[in-house]
Structure formats: structure tokens, C-alpha cells
UniProtKB/TrEMBL annotation:
<dbReference type="GO" id="GO:0043709">
    <property type="term" value="P:cell adhesion involved in single-species biofilm formation"/>
</dbReference>
<dbReference type="InterPro" id="IPR000160">
    <property type="entry name" value="GGDEF_dom"/>
</dbReference>
<dbReference type="GO" id="GO:0052621">
    <property type="term" value="F:diguanylate cyclase activity"/>
</dbReference>
<feature type="domain" description="GGDEF">
    <location>
        <begin position="192"/>
        <end position="321"/>
    </location>
</feature>
<dbReference type="InterPro" id="IPR029787">
    <property type="entry name" value="Nucleotide_cyclase"/>
</dbReference>
<dbReference type="GO" id="GO:0005886">
    <property type="term" value="C:plasma membrane"/>
</dbReference>
<protein>
    <recommendedName>
        <fullName>diguanylate cyclase</fullName>
        <ecNumber>2.7.7.65</ecNumber>
    </recommendedName>
</protein>
<dbReference type="GO" id="GO:1902201">
    <property type="term" value="P:negative regulation of bacterial-type flagellum-dependent cell motility"/>
</dbReference>
<dbReference type="Pfam" id="PF00990">
    <property type="entry name" value="GGDEF"/>
</dbReference>
<dbReference type="InterPro" id="IPR043128">
    <property type="entry name" value="Rev_trsase/Diguanyl_cyclase"/>
</dbReference>
<dbReference type="InterPro" id="IPR050469">
    <property type="entry name" value="Diguanylate_Cyclase"/>
</dbReference>
Length: 341
């Protein structure tokens, strides 16, 4: 029997959170207390129906997987059935395991599912409680999503950028290496680095002046769609305002990050925009490092962007590469010297 006062306390805690990922943790933590599952997962499928995110809770341990998600066939089949029918699914896998799947929500880019594996049948009261919790989560997600999105493009907004960056910094290893940047090699601890790209449309003012702001807005909308089509579901896409966008990706090495940003730059260059024709974009990229503040990180990306604009536009420039070549100077602000946020 569900403890109603305890459940209400959990709902209060969950709806006090203003971060989607933390809200997912809270949802699983609430469910595990009442359902007592052997395994509990939130699975996200991308636009092509492939798993792109897995948050698991097993034996009181959380695990997040973004890449190379290997899902058992019986679970994928159940998820696909729920995806088509929009109805909950449950079936016994063997005498000791019962699989149940619920559809949590659908967005333009993802389908999100709850997967439970329990020893016993889920009773009617518990099933009712799960459906109610998912309804609360769904409604609150819609409120958060609306507040965190740019109204024109649907990309995340500047306020969300600050929250995401702060969260990523907690995942970065401490930067205690005294070796200068130009001599620093990638180590295993940095193998899952994050890269920030500041992208700015070339000659966008000319588009607005020549064709009007309605056409300018159409270009911004198409650019955002190209971004969503050429970066992964696990990457972060933001519109900062005007014609400026920011992209955060995960890549093991600089050359892998360069391939991702260059692929997007080419996609913009090759796209034929209605009435306008060709539009190009310049991108400045900097690697996230635990030793620098957000303001310094953005300054590094902005310096790389300025270099791209100054030297012909329609190109991708990396701050670290420019620094090695002596074409830019490193900012003086480090995390040990001043607090900005």
C-alpha cells in the first residue's frame, strides 16, 4: 500500500527541481521507494528510434550512458510496442522477472520511456501511482521545457546554458597539470572532453536589411533545424540571441570535435535558403577545462570566432590551435583568481 504522506513529500521535492536531468533522478528515486524494482531505467530514443540516453538505477547505483547503448532485445521490442500503441506494457520474462514499460513523454527529437523489472506483479494501486507520478512529471517537464527554450528556434536559451555548463564542470577532472596548454597531451582522464563552439552567421545584418526580418527569422529557424540534424541528441544546442548560437559537444580529441563542427559548417554552406540562396557560418571553438571560469571559456571561443571572421569567414577555428600557433593570447582569468558566478 502506497504511503500517501510520503508520496506527497516526494512530489514536493521533485517539483522543486528546475533541471530535467535532476528531475529524472528524483523520479527514479521516488519510484524505487514504492515499487522496489530489481532494475529501473529511463530510456530515450532519438528521431530514428535508436537508444540515445539511458539513466539506470540498479542496486542503489545510478548510471548514465550516452553512447553505445546495448539494450536487450526483449526490452527494445517492448519499448517499440509502447512507442506505437502509446499503452503501458508488462510481461513476465521468466519466473523471477517481470518487465513493464511506460511512455513518459514525446518531444520533437526524443521519445522517453520508463522501464521497470520487478520480481512480483505490479498491483493496481502501484500502477495507478506510477501513472500519476508520470503525469506530474510530464506536466512539470512541459513547464520547464517552455521556460528553458528560445521561442523562435526551440533551442535552449542563454539561462539554460549557464545551468548546463555548471553541471558539466562537475563532471570534469581537476586540472592540476602545470604543463602549458601547447605542450599538454590528452590523457585518459580527458578522453571524454567537452568542447564549446560559438557560431555566428556571416553577414546576417545584410540579410535582414535586404530581405527583412521575417526572412531573417526563417534563416535562424532553418539554421536551428540544421544544427539539430547534424549534432547528436546528447549534445547541447543553444541560441544566445540574434544570429549567435552556442554548441557543446563531447569528443575525445580535438580532431574529432573539428570533424563535428566542420560537418555542420559545410551543411550550412551547402544548404539553399529560400529566396536568399547561400548562407555561411563562422565557428570559434574552445575546450572546457576545470581550471577556467565560464566567462573565460566563452572569451576563448569568442577569440577563435573573431579570428574566423577576420580571416575570411565561413570556417571553424579552435582556440587551442590558434594558441599553439601564437595567433591568440590566453585569458588571464583562472578559477583560483576571481569568482564571476
Amino acid at each position: 500500500m502506497t504511503n500517501a504522506p510520503r508520496l506527497l513529500d516526494k512530489l514536493v521535492s521533485m517539483t522543486a527541481i528546475h533541471d530535467v536531468e535532476l528531475m529524472e533522478f528524483s523520479l527514479l528515486k521516488t519510484l524505487v521507494e514504492f515499487v522496489r524494482p530489481q532494475e529501473l531505467m529511463i530510456i530515450k530514443l532519438d528521431r530514428n528510434g535508436h537508444p540515445c540516453y539511458q539513466l539506470s538505477l540498479k542496486h542503489e547505483q545510478y548510471e548514465i550512458i550516452h553512447d553505445d547503448i546495448c539494450m536487450p532485445d526483449e526490452i527494445m521490442a517492448a519499448i517499440e510496442l509502447v512507442r506505437r500503441t502509446k499503452q503501458p506494457f508488462n510481461r513476465r520474462l521468466d519466473p523471477l522477472r517481470l518487465l513493464a514499460v511506460w511512455n513518459i513523454l514525446q518531444t520533437k527529437s526524443q521519445d522517453v520511456f520508463l522501464v521497470t523489472i520487478t520480481a512480483n506483479e505490479i498491483g493496481k494501486l502501484d500502477a495507478y501511482m506510477i501513472n500519476g507520478l508520470l503525469g506530474v512529471y510530464r506536466n512539470f517537464f512541459a513547464v520547464l521545457h517552455e521556460a528553458q527554450r528560445d521561442q523562435l528556434t526551440g533551442l535552449a536559451n542563454r539561462k539554460t546554458f549557464d545551468e548546463v555548463v555548471n553541471k558539466i564542470y562537475f563532471q570534469l577532472p581537476p586540472s592540476t597539470d602545470p604543463v602549458p596548454v601547447e605542450r599538454r597531451a590528452d590523457s585518459p582522464s580527458r578522453s571524454r572532453g567537452f568542447w564549446v563552439g560559438m557560431a555566428d552567421l556571416d553577414n546576417f545584418k545584410r540579410i535582414n536589411d535586404s530581405w527583412g526580418h521575417l526572412y531573417g527569422d526563417e534563416v535562424l529557424l532553418l539554421i536551428s533545424q540544421l544544427m539539430q540534424g547534424h549534432f547528436r541528441e546528447s549534445d547541447y544546442l543553444f541560441r544566445f540571441g540574434g544570429e549567435e548560437f552556442v554548441i557543446i559537444i563531447r569528443a575525445a580529441h580535438e580532431d574529432q570535435a573539428e570533424q563535428a563542427f566542420e560537418r555542420f559548417r559545410r551543411a550550412v554552406e551547402e544548404h539553399i535558403f529560400p529566396q536568399i540562396g547561400q548562407v555561411t557560418i563562422s565557428i570559434g571553438v574552445a575546450k572546457m577545462d576545470a581550471s577556467i571560469f565560464t566567462a573565460t571559456l566563452l572569451d576563448h571561443a569568442d577569440k577563435a570566432l573573431y579570428h574566423a571572421k577576420k580571416n575570411g569567414r565561413n570556417q571553424v577555428c579552435f582556440f587551442e590551435k590558434l594558441l599553439r600557433d601564437g595567433l591568440v593570447e590566453e585569458s588571464d582569468i583562472r578559477t583560483g583568481e576571481v569568482e564571476l558566478f
